[in-house]
Hints:
The chain is an all-alpha fold. Helix content is 66%, strand content 2%. The protein has a domain at 14-68 and 106-178 and 255-264.
Amino acid sequence: MQQLFGASGANLDPDQLSRLSGVPIDPAMMSTVMQHLQGAFAGAAGGEGGISWDMAKRQALHIANQDGRSVTDGQRTELDQAFQLAALWVSAATTIAELADPPRAFTRGQWVEATLPVWQELAEPVATSIADALTRTLSEQAPEELQGMVQGAGRLMRGIGGSLFAAQLGQVVGQLSLEVVSGGDVGIPVMPAGSAAILPQNFADFGAGLEVDPDQSALYIAARELAHARLFRHAKWLRLHVIAQVSEIARGTLVNDEGLEELATRFDPSEPEELRQALMSGELLRRSEEGQAALGRLENVLATIEGWVDVVTADATARLPYVDRLSEAARRRRAVGGPAERALGSLVGLELRPRRLREAAAMWRAVTDAVGVEARDALWDYPDLMPTSDDIDDPSALVARLEARARGEEPARDAFDEALESLLADTGGDEKSGGVEGDGPEDPRPV
């Protein structure tokens, strides 16, 4: 505390900060982190405050580029060919139009550059909440002799807390760049709208142990990525819908004040491992009822999206000899998630795994078999047409409605529809009666 707020100007020990973060950072990177922390001090003290997202970007790019390799001409040519053939196959499996922009082969660093704005948008509510809670708890726990230093330091601590959170987010996004194989691999639309990409460096590990030719793996991943990107380009409302759900979860992720206070009372600066474990385990966060409800809605939305992508990809790649192995590997990746995705869940309180993926895929398969590809894809035209959680539980009701619509029949009316019609009819009757009892129908006097 004296080093942070005292007037002596003492420098923080980079080695201690490295141990506190719990991740190995080379001296050059630590120097950069220290510079940004100093900038956070200066900016907050000058009244700017805020979160240093530039630090998150630098951290993420540092991790992505440490062992990052550029895309060779041979890799780019092979992936271009895979995308061209996969585009033909996907076009035969869906009525949703092709992308306007050509797919790309991304380095890890390029994936970070393209997706970080979305990660920042999703993490900012949690970062602000943690920084505010840190300020409040620090003021409450500081001894009497330090209260003078702490008073008025709220903006400063918010800037510092936000910067430290940004550094953690940069670590997680950087680690994600080592795991993802394509732009849509995490399930949410982190890529720019209508963009598709594969990371050749990470893709090399996708087919490991499957005993599948790399060309087949490339075709499968290309088809899956194109289906995902086409869906979000076609249903322009869907991207906003998913981001809104994720943002609502983030806003509903609160700081566990009791846990933070307990940690503050027993924290030993010489043993930073406990703090690191608390941060990365998620025990300092809790989810409100609204946030929990939003998480349930997001899980259903992600499952509905991934189920459609699964069915389209399976139909598009049905001619591949080992498509079952590839589809199971992709489904397992999405259901389990990697270490960085789990770290993101702990840091932001966001879980991106579609827990009902198999049930959603079964629903889309039933719809496809019953009414065909065109009627199935038309369900993405408007938000109101999108299948619900109940449809995933029981696809037969959805199939019956679609089959009735295909025959030109009016959909079955439920109790709510009948009650609403009755209410409107009663209201309309009262308006038509218009006059006072005993007046003739032409009596112009107002009631």
